[in-house]
Automatic annotation (TrEMBL), chain A:
Signal peptide: none annotated. Its EC number is 2.8.1.7. Its cofactor is pyridoxal 5'-phosphate. SUPFAM superfamilies: PLP-dependent transferases. It comes from Promicromonospora soli. This is cysteine desulfurase. Pfam families: Aminotran_5. InterPro entries: Aminotrans_V_dom, Aminotrans_V_PyrdxlP_BS, Cysteine_dSase, PyrdxlP-dep_Trfase, PyrdxlP-dep_Trfase_major, PyrdxlP-dep_Trfase_small. The keyword Amino-acid biosynthesis does not apply. The keyword Iron-sulfur applies. It comes from the Bacteria. Belongs to the class-V pyridoxal-phosphate-dependent aminotransferase family. NifS/IscS subfamily.
Length: 428, 427
């Protein structure tokens, strides 16, 4: 038998991520203007991921391999907590934003109702993501919840008077309130602190989905006063498949996923050490960068808005005034009268520009956005929506490419809209 | 060329898209969503319209490396195909929704939107061939005519349901499977390319009718309307829940309490919506040798000139100068074959095109009995068609069906049957 040299042990061979430390990975080819869908992972996060993924160890094990993994998880927890103004014990790692929202809505509803069966009302803004709306409506169908959709104004901002009136009339029956930090479609920042102020006298817990906000706006869990906050990795330079729910220790929160009792029994399941380590690195980097990035992205976004309006005068900007402080710096959202969003999307994609209609699909069929409808946009106009979102890797060249393609794209899409008769009502 | 591949999620359209890609075209896959509530459509993997089918189409597009979109044509589908299906049955006629889908959805809504978005052609997985042929013009010169021909695969041939699209629209269509002689070959092509739909069963039923229960679907949409079943003498022989659910030639589902006096099987021979009456009679009454068609349409170079529509740019068709008459002009009888159902055999016939008011037919049929005339609100001067079968009579030709005129493999024209009858005198 021949003696062969054993192959190199991958665990001992350090892998280096491409690009300099701290630089993000390459984004998709062409002009990628869909950072709100997902944004490139930072090189530092990728390096942390690779380093941990090469190690073997279950963070719940007591032996040395387990302890090493546990340490990586707890360091990430501390990093993340510090960056977001929370205590480490308030961080519950999950698989991402959707799971965190499900845990918040269902867990708080069940916890609060166990304390007092009269508390069946769930108050959510009408512009929440489906990850909040759908668990709420599921509870309505399966657990006797009553859902109250709180109205928003024409810019997508919560109607605080409606919230206060609702609380004045039904506080005793209210289980929780969920209002997002920033809207994923039109980028409008919500008055979360005012929601907390309105809810506090009644002792009603407030959840906020902040997946779009962290890394683009200042977000501080404790200072905001909310009881629970959803965050996710892949919107801020971390990996897909990891997120967290920040939850106050005194919050009544039932588990949704049961099992081995990890994450203080609220979220069982073996911890994804590599993703969590990368998540911690990504959150710290994203939060540290907020002041600079917000300034840079706002300027780039304002340029994008001005140039889109110049080449496509029929475009209608939706959401809060970019000049105000009420809009995510990387968000621009338009409706194009007479055009259908998926036609615009296809034509832009052909021209190497990747954007989004911003709204959900049902089996691939674009639906008029519930966010725009809640803002009072007529359905025909809502069909012509297009969202452009900027991120760490966005440049002026991306905007140039969009602006160069847009006039013909809009003209073609409007011609197709005329033929299909679907978007005609939106013609001026 | 920029080609839109209509992808149903079945094997045929997936291979058609693959062939378009391999021919060097710039291809985008589009799946048509035809119902808002797709869970109400037939589930399983047999059709074109379920969520599973949309997923299969997406997967095939991914394998081919082409962009994939879902276009919501559900409103148009409901307003045209489903509405026509209901109103035709309500009027005592027998619609073919696949024909109407080709007419209004695939080769109108889809094609027009594709054209507006800059596509040069729409590729589908239909079994039929489009052939270009040079013809001499009477005044000298030549031009290209586009012809629709049968597939060499007789069992799968779909020229019958495609004819309604007409020459102008089919000139912007592409049928990459047109030359395939068998479905097995198509499945083999799918398997060779790693398309997971290669073994997917064929679809047969009407996609928007769950479980193939047409009567149940009609009842759910049109409601219960009890009425009488009578024999040809007018005697009541049974009851029904709605005359709309019956179609001429039907035998099953009549639920007649008493057998006929002569003991023979009875068939639906007429549906009279005005009185909500179903008439039954012996099989002989179903035999016809005369067919009148409305909404007649003739292919390029066959009969009267086909003017290209100025509103639609058509990169595949050269400018038409003068039509080249291939068969005699309007009003003259010519010999051809006709087919009256999707999987029927063609039968020999004499055919002529007519475009003139009712009363001028010269066949002894009173105007009032000719549904092709203004009696049903249609334009009496609209193009129509008359057919005399020259071989054996046909059974069960119902108003509403399509009749397609062939010369060998070539489609000459098509119409919707407005009336079918037996010539009064023996021939």
């Amino acid at each position: 038998m021949t003696v062969t040299t054993p192959p190199p042990d991958p665990a001992r061979t350090p892998l280096t991520a491409s690009g300099a430390h701290g630089e993000p990975r390459r984004e998709p080819d062409g002009a990628y203007l869909d950072h709100a869908a997902t944004t490139p992972m930072s090189a530092a996060a990728l390096a942390a991921f690779v380093a941990e993924a090469q190690r073997t160890g279950n963070a719940s094990s007591l032996h040395s391999a387990g302890r090493t993994s546990r340490r990586a998880v707890e360091e990430a927890r501390e990093t993340l907590a510090k960056s977001l103004g929370a205590r480490p014990s308030e961080v519950i790692f999950t698989s991402g934003g959707t799971e965190s929202d499900n845990l918040a809505i269902k867990g708080i509803f069940w916890g609060r109702r166990a304390q007092d069966p009269r508390r069946t009302r769930i108050l959510v803004s009408a512009v929440e993501h489906h990850a909040v709306l759908d668990p709420a409506f599921w509870l309505a169908g399966h657990a006797g919840a009553d859902i109250v959709l709180l109205p928003v104004d024409r810019e997508g901002r919560l109607d605080l008077a409606a919230l206060r009136a609702e609380l004045a009339a039904h506080a005793a029956e209210t289980a929780l309130i969920s209002v997002m930090w920033a809207n994923n479609e039109v980028g409008t920042l919500q008055p979360v602190r005012d929601v907390v102020r309105a809810a506090r006298p009644y002792g009603i817990p407030v959840h906020t989905d902040a997946v779009q906000a962290v890394g683009q706006a200042e977000v501080d869990f404790t200072e905001s006063g909310v009881d629970a906050m959803t965050i996710t990795g892949h919107k801020l330079g971390g990996p897909v498949g990891v997120g967290a729910l920040l939850a106050k220790r005194d919050l009544a929160l039932d588990a949704v996923i049961h099992g081995g009792g990890q994450e203080r029994g609220v979220r069982s399941g073996t911890l994804d050490v590599a993703s969590i380590a990368a998540f911690g690195v990504a959150v710290r980097h994203a939060v540290d960068c907020v002041p600079d990035r917000a300034a840079r992205l706002s300027a780039l976004r304002d340029d994008l808005v001005a140039r889109v309006r110049a080449v496509a005068p029929s475009a209608v900007l939706r959401g809060a005034d970019p000049a105000s402080d009420d809009r995510l710096p990387g968000n621009a959202h338009f409706t194009f009268p007479g055009a259908e969003g998926d036609s615009l999307l296809y034509l832009l994609d052909s021209a190497g520009v990747q954007a989004s209609t911003g709204s959900a699909c049902q089996a691939g069929v674009p639906q008029p956005s519930h966010v725009l409808l809640a803002m009072g946009v007529p359905e025909t106009e809502a069909r012509g929506a297009l969202r452009f979102t900027l991120g760490a890797t966005s440049t002026e060249a991306d905007v140039d490419r969009l602006v160069a393609a847009l006039p013909q794209v809009v003209a073609r899409a409007q011609a197709a809209g005329l033929v299909s008769g679907r978007a005609m009502g939106g013609m001026a | 060329m920029r080609v839109l591949a209509a992808m149903s999620g079945g094997v045929d359209s997936a291979v058609a898209a693959a062939l378009a890609v391999e021919a060097g075209h710039d291809v985008v896959g589009v799946h048509m969503a035809l119902s808002r509530n797709r869970d109400q459509f037939r589930t399983g993997s047999r059709g074109c319209c379920s969520i599973e089918d949309a997923g299969d189409a997406r997967r095939a597009a991914d394998v081919l490396g082409i962009p994939y979109y879902v276009w919501d044509l559900s409103e148009r589908f409901e307003d045209t195909v489903v509405a026509d299906f209901l109103s035709e049955y309500e009027a005592g006629r027998t619609p073919n929704p696949c024909v109407r889908c080709n007419e209004h959805i695939k080769f109108e809504a889809l094609l027009d939107k594709a054209t507006a978005l800059g596509f040069d052609a729409v590729a589908t997985g239909h079994y039929a061939q489009i052939e270009s042929r040079e013809v001499a013009l009477p005044g000298g010169g030549r031009r290209t005519v586009r012809e629709l021909h049968r597939s060499p695969n007789d069992a799968k041939d779909q020229s019958y349901v495609l004819a309604v699209a007409g020459p102008e629209r089919l000139a912007r269509a592409m049928f990459p499977l047109g030359g395939f002689a068998s479905k097995d070959e198509v499945r083999a092509e799918a398997a060779r390319r790693g398309l997971s739909v290669s073994a997917k069963p064929d679809s047969y039923d009407i996609c928007f009718v769950a479980d193939g229960d047409t009567r149940g679907f009609l009842q759910s949409r049109l409601g219960s309307r009890p009425g009488s079943v009578v024999d040809v003498s007018g005697a009541v022989v049974g009851e029904h829940d709605g005359a709309y659910a019956f179609t001429v030639g039907q035998r099953r589902g009549l639920a007649l309490g008493r057998p006929a006096a002569d003991g023979k099987a009875r068939y639906v021979v007429d549906v009279q919506p005005a009185t909500n009456t179903v008439v039954v009679g012996p099989a002989e009454l179903l035999s016809v040798d005369r067919i009148a068609g409305e909404k007649a349409l003739w292919f390029d170079g066959v009969l009267p000139p086909v003017e290209p529509s100025p509103s639609l740019p058509n990169p595949l068709v050269e400018p038409v100068e003068t039509p080249a008459a291939v068969v005699p002009s309007a009003d003259e009888w010519f010999d051809a074959e006709v087919q009256v159902r999707a999987h029927g055999a063609p039968v020999p016939a004499r055919v002529r095109s007519i475009a003139r008011p009712a009363g001028a037919y010269g066949d002894g049929i009173p105007d009032g009995e000719r549904p092709a005339s203004a009696a049903d609100g249609s334009d009496p001067s609209a193009p129509a068609m008359e057919i005399e079968l020259t071989g054996a009579p046909l059974r069960g030709v119902a108003p509403g069906q399509s009749v397609v005129v062939y010369s060998g493999t070539r489609v000459l024209g098509q119409a919707t049957v407005s009336r079918a009858w037996r010539a009064p005198a023996p021939r």
